[in-house]
C-alpha cells in the first residue's frame, strides 16, 4: 500500500447544516437550522442532493432535523476524528495539525513534531488555527435494505459545540452498550443555543441521540440482537476496527487538496470576510434593539 495515503471509510456523500453562498462577489458560509444530505458532486448551483435527502424529508414531513444513523466502528475516535488545523489558503495544504499537546508542522519539505499549545496561544498560527472534526456515519432510512454496509456519509465541522457533544455522546454510548457502539440505532439531531457573541441569535450544532420514540432499553436490546446476528454471520467488528486504525495511521492528513478547498470556503473564510459579516450582524442587532426600544416608549406609533 502507498505510504502517505490515509485510508478513510468509503464516502457516499456529505451531511451539512449550512452552505456556501456567493454575496457581493465573495463566497461566505451561511448556516442553516436543518440538515442537508448531498452527493460528492458540486455544480455552480451548489452540492447535488443525495436521494436520501428527499426520502428523509418526506418521512419527516418538515425540515430535516433528524437523520437515522449507525456508527461504522465501536471505537469512538475512529468514527469522529478532530484536530487543530492550520491551512495554507494558496495550496489548500495543511501546514500544522495538532491535538493540543503535540502537532506535526510542515517545514520546507518535511514534517516536524512540535509542542501544540492550542489555537488560542499559538504564535505560529496567529489566530488562523481552528478545530476541524470529521464524523463518518452510515445513514439507515427505515425500510431501505439497499444500504452499503461499509459506505458512509461524512459530517465536517469546525464548531466546538458539535465536536464536544459528539465526542461525549460517542464515548457514553460505547460505555453503556458494552462496546457495541456500531450496533446501536442512533440519530443525528440539530440543537440550538445562543451566546453573548451571537447577540442572542441561535447557533446550531449537531448532537447524537437515540432515535425518536425509542427508549434506552429498546436501543440496547436491538444492539444486542444486531451484535449476535453479526457474530452468527461471521461479521468481525474488531477486525474492521483494527483495519480502520491501520488505514488512518497510513498518512499525515486524510483530506486531499480538492476536499480542503471546499472546507476552507465553508469553515475557514478569509478574516476580512468574517469581520465584514460580523459587523453587519452587529449593526442589524443594534437596529432591532433600537426599534424595539422606540416601540416600547411609543406604543401608539404604528409602522
Your description of this structure?
- Strand 7 (102-107) and strand 8 (110-115) form a beta hairpin.
- The chain starts with 10 loop residues before the first strand and ends in a 6-residue tail after the last helix.
- The chain has 7 helices and 12 strands.
- Residues 273-283 and 299-303 have low confidence and may be disordered.
- The relative contact order is 0.17.
- Strands 1, 2, 3, 4, 5, 6, 7, 8, 9, 10, 11 and 12 form a 12-stranded mixed β-sheet that branches.
- It is α+β, with helices and mostly antiparallel strands and 303 residues long.
- It has helices at 51-60, 76-79, 160-176, 216-233, 237-248, 257-267, 271-297, and strands at residues 11-23, 26-43, 46-49, 66-71, 80-88, 93-98, 102-107, 110-115, 130-139, 152-157, 186-193, 203-210.
- The protein has one domain (11-80, 136-295).
Describe the SSE topology.
Blueprint: E1 11-23, E2 26-43, E3 46-49, H1 51-60, E4 66-71, H2 76-79, E5 80-88, E6 93-98, E7 102-107, E8 110-115, E9 130-139, E10 152-157, H3 160-176, E11 186-193, E12 203-210, H4 216-233, H5 237-248, H6 257-267, H7 271-297
Parallel strand pairs: 1-10
Antiparallel strand pairs: 1-2, 2-3, 4-9, 4-11, 5-6, 5-9, 6-7, 7-8, 9-10, 11-12
